[in-house]
Amino acid sequence: MVLTAHFIDSDWALHKKILNFCQVADHKDETIGKLIESCLLEWGIDKVFSITVDNARLKEIHDLIVSVRNVVRYVRSSPKRLTKFKTCVEQEKIDCKALVCLDVPTRWNSTCLMLKHALEFEKDLQILEEEELDYYDYFAKDEHEKKRIGPPSNFDWKNVEVFVMFFKVFYNVTNKISGSLYVTANSFFHEMWGINDLLISWSNEHNSILRNMTINMKSKYDKYWGSIEKINKLVFLAVVLDPRYKLDYVGFCIESVHDDAMVKVLVDEIEAYLMRLYNYYKS
After folding, report:
1. What string of H, E and C letters represents the secondary structure of 117-171?
2. Domain ranges (residues) in the chain
3. For residue 18, what are the β-bridge partners?
4. DSSP 107
5. Which CB contacts under 8 angstroms, 24+ apart, belong to 129-134?
6. Cα separation, 214 vs 218, whole angstroms
7. What does the pLDDT average to over 56-74?
8. How far from each other are the two terminal CA atoms of the chain, in whole angstroms?
9. Mean pLDDT (the chain, rounded)
10. Which of 175, 184, 237, 277 is deepest in the core (most CB within 10 A)?
């Protein structure tokens, strides 16, 4: 596990620094939490705004991801296969600079990129399946004499397309709010609100896989963002201080998920936080 810190210096410049590489027994929340706590205590870091992990679980699509990973591993496992794959790409005249790439299984964003690139070369991978004599032998057994998962069927590739569309949203949002060369504080509210609207829309999709993934993701989303009263008020203050939106815009957004009485309470709380912040800097 890599522990990375994002912090603002005295000149209000956002920095992103790797603090440590740690070996973990598993990727359970409790294990990761205790390890991070011990590191912070050891270094004497006591001012932490938030902690984010990227160990999202994809249990329901595990076999599909493994099947694509095995296809990519087949291509990358020997120079001969990679050369054959490049020949297929040239023959199909696919204009893409990047080739298929293996992911880091514990990093969901890495897996997202692997699926995306594999989907772009779906036709070429299927040509390999038809022309390479050792293709099915590769999937018949691994180094432990067990059958490998895969190769992906036509139906599987359709599902990969759905997964890429689904995770692309989170991949883009993660990249946007993790930037260190531009202001990001005022983006959190908009991005999280946009994700909420999208999850609500996708939960009514006819595609059962997309619908089920959305329902599971919405449950995870609601755990951290579902109760608007518990969200750190600085997320709202950043939007209020953005001259394009201000307090009325925040109230307008909250109205879409709460009744008028709750909206007034939350807006009053945000305004009170804003005044406290103003008085702090004024003094």
Report:
1. HHHHCHHHHHHHHHHCCCHHHHHHCCCCCCCCCCCCCHHHHHHHHHHHHHHHHHH
2. 1-53, 59-166, 179-283
3. 4
4. -
5. 131/84, 132/81, 132/84
6. 6
7. 80
8. 42
9. 82
10. 237
CA angle 261, 266, 268 (to 5 degrees): 95
3-state DSSP call for residue 224? Answer: helix
List, for residues 118-155, the tens digit of each pLDDT value: 998 898 888 888 888 888 888 888 777 788 888 888 88
Q: Is the pLDDT of residue 18 over 60?
A: yes
Q: Is 9 helix (H, G, I), strand (E, B) or coil?
A: coil
Query: Which burial class, exposed, middle or buried, applies to 177 when counting CB atoms under 10 A from its CB (0-12, 13-18, 19+)?
Result: middle
Phi and psi angles of residue 15, each rounded to the nearest 5 degrees, phi first: -120, 155
Q: Residue for token digits 């210096």?
A: 9
Question: What long-range pairs does 44-51 form, CB within 8 A, spacing at least 24?
Answer: 49/232, 49/234, 50/232
pTM score of the predicted model: 0.68
**CA–CA separation, 49 and 185 (whole Å):** 12
Provide DSSP, 12-31. Answer: --EEEEEEEE---S---HHH
User: In the structure encoding, which two tokens stand for residue 109, read together?
Assistant: 């964003």
| Amino acid 60: pLDDT | 54
Residue 240 near residue 270 (C-beta atoms within 8 A): yes
Q: Token pair for residue 130?
A: 């038809």
Tokens representing residue 162 in the block: 């759905």
